[in-house]
Amino acid sequence: MTISSQILAFTLIASLCIMQSSGFSIEEATIDGLQLAFKQNQLTSRQLVEFYIRQIHKLNPLLRGVIEVNPDALTLADKADQDRRNKVPGSSVGLHGIPILLKDNIATKDKLNTTAGSLALLGSIVPRDAGVAAKLRKAGAIILGKASLSEWANFRSYGAPSGFCARSGQGKASSNFPNQEFLCCKSLQNPYVLSADPCGSSSGSGISVAANMAAVSLGTETDGSILCPSSANSVVGIKPTVGLTSRAGVIPISPRQDTVGPMCRTVADAVYVLDAIAGFDRNDPATKAGAKYIPRGGYKQFLKPDGLKGKRLGIVRDPFFTSYSGFDHHFQTLRQKGAVLIDNLRITNLGESYSDENLALVTEFKPALNAYLKELIASPVRSLADVIAFNNKFSKQASIEKIKEYGQGIFEEAESIKGFDASYKAALQNLTKISRDGFEKLMRKNKLDALVTPDSSASSILAIGGHPGIVVPAGYDKEGLPFGICFGGLRGSEPKLIEIAYSFEQATNIRRPPSFQA
User: Fold this and answer.
1) Which of 59, 130, 344, 400 has the fewest CB atoms found within 10 Å of its own CB?
2) Residues 6+ apart with CB under 8 A from 170
3) What whole-number distance in Å separates Cα of residue 104 and Cα of residue 114?
4) Are the C-beta atoms of 159 and 204 separated by less than 8 Å?
């Protein structure tokens, strides 16, 4: 039996066990479906957590989407079930009793590690839950574990591939896959086409929800790290306006561009998670300005099947769609649902931001990381210089060629920078100008509600201005690899983007479970 056949068989058996015992199938279930099953006594949170733990045990040795499972997950599930039996207010709605995986750069004050996928932070102790983790607990969500990621959010080396993670291979070989080697520092696998790039850096978050190893997940994005893995793993990803969700307690790259958002199987699930995590956090000053964008009543109200009606959508064919031939039928769907497409638009300064964005991010990284490390209660490393030294020592001891090959060029470059000098300030001014005179001007001049692009091709445009974007599954290529469609807008435009994304999803229903093709 092939590995793909084994995986499908194991998944089917697990699903059948749940269906036979309760009459309800957990696989691909939405939050609404899970809450209804709780209400009708077809399912408990304990059964749900047990299902995901079995899925992780069976699939994770191959996919490596999960770094750690919370040892207290079942205890938390029992508490959620008890709250539901006792009719505790809020225990029958939203995320209460729903298991969620957090990307491993999001701090949790529990028995889980927070390491950004690096062995350098293994055993470190955080002072408190990250702001978003605290909000999830308040909503009653069960922290199921930590999702793998491209190590250090893909900001360690220019040469490392997406999904490369020192901690992702720490688990021992599973008896289900006796011929597989699971050594330290292997890359994560795309559940649709195992040989394909799962994209990063929130690779594990996308892989895990796609493969039904969790109900929902959180990722983080500085530039493309939610949008790209969501597209590549056929899930919905929301990259919020910077400051809409707290970054406190999140291992940083850039306070100017970092954001935290949901990665889920449906738009509705992603919106439920966004409602839970958006809002002010005294530990992240950016959320004071971001909170003004949150609509009264939250984001759930914008889940409208007719949300495309009257929306003005911009299409920049060159360069975004020059390599994609399968989107014209999606454009037709958008029109049929009432959207007005403004086609053949141009953004004159596309591609001009790369060097300035890179300079700004590398400059901002060291002080941001050092501040995070210094606040830890305990840690093997206290500065970027310590991390570099740890990695150098580890690569020599481990004798793992890939670690030596990939190196840590970004780290070394960031460490060499002495401060926010004139070149950094000039780069920031140029990035502001590029965003203002490019994407923002295009949106306002054409009175657009969203820019439509394939995959995550507009991630840099959205990143440098702190703008939001939503990726929705849009299809599968001839090899079976997923691709998404992205709706991006101006800061605070999440309500419009949710209407657009939800309406598109409901009109197309493209997502399907992974096929685990070798």
Assistant:
1) 344
2) 67, 184
3) 5
4) no
The Cα–Cα gap between 59 and 10 comes to 9
pLDDT in tens, 268-322: 999 999 999 999 999 999 999 999 999 999 999 999 999 999 999 999 999 999 8
Q: Per-residue pLDDT tens for 97-142?
A: 999 999 999 999 999 999 999 999 999 999 999 999 999 999 999 9
Whether 146 is a known active-site residue: answer no
Class at the top of the CATH hierarchy for domain 3-17+27-508:
alpha beta
CA 216 to CA 229: how far, in whole Å?
14
143 has which bridge partners?
100
Backbone angles phi, psi at 422, to 5 degrees: -65, -35
201: annotated active-site residue: yes
Question: Is 103 an active-site residue?
Answer: yes
Q: Identify which of 170, 204, 211 has the alpha carbon closest to the alpha carbon of residue 7.
A: 211
In this structure, of 1-5, 128-132, 153-157, the range with the lowest mean pLDDT score is: 1-5
Residues in the chain: 518
| CB half-sphere exposure, 299, CA atoms < 13 A | 31
- pLDDT tens column, 57-88: 999 999 999 999 999 999 999 999 999 999 99
The secondary structure of 34-49 as a DSSP string is HHHHHHTTS--HHHHH
CB 142 within 8 A of CB 133: no
Q: How far is CA 384 from CA 371, 410, 413, in A?
A: 10, 11, 11
What are the domain boundaries of the chain?
Answer: 3-17+27-508
Give the whole-angstrom CA distance, residue 151 versus residue 168: 9
Among candidate residues 45, 58, 79, 103, the one labeled active-site is 103
Which of 148, 225, 230, 456 is catalytic? The answer is 225
* Contact of 454 with 324, CB cutoff 8 Å: yes
